[in-house]
Amino acid sequence: MALAPAHASATNSQATHPTDIRDRWPRWYFWIAILLLIVAAFFRLHHLSVTPPGLQADEILNIQLADRMRQGFVSVVYSDVTPARSP
User: Do 84 and 61 meet the contact criterion of CB atoms below 8 Å apart?
Assistant: First the structure.
């Protein structure tokens, strides 16, 4: 029965399972992540006062009605309701 050298198993386990994140990720990944966050913050804050506020109440109601119809809850839409809601 042959015995393997003690240093052979230690170097193999260290090479396949690095314990420190600096061993696995190159340093420039950090700077790319920082750059992407800065660019994202710029585009988020650029012309913040002129961006649309989002969906209006009428649009949300139409989305909810369409979702209920997809689930099988079909209801009658009356034409005397102003405005008529028919998705």
Answer: no
Q: Are 21 and 27 in contact (CB under 8 A)?
A: no
Report the SS3 class of residue 44.
Answer: helix
Question: pLDDT by residue (tens digit) across 7-26?
Answer: 555 555 455 555 666 667 78
pTM of the complete model beyond 0.90: no
How many CA atoms within 13 Å lie on the side-chain side of 49? Answer: 0
Phi–psi pair at 15, nearest 5 degrees: -75, -30
Does residue 69 contact residue 87 with C-beta atoms inside 8 Å? yes
Q: Tokens representing 39? A: 């660019």
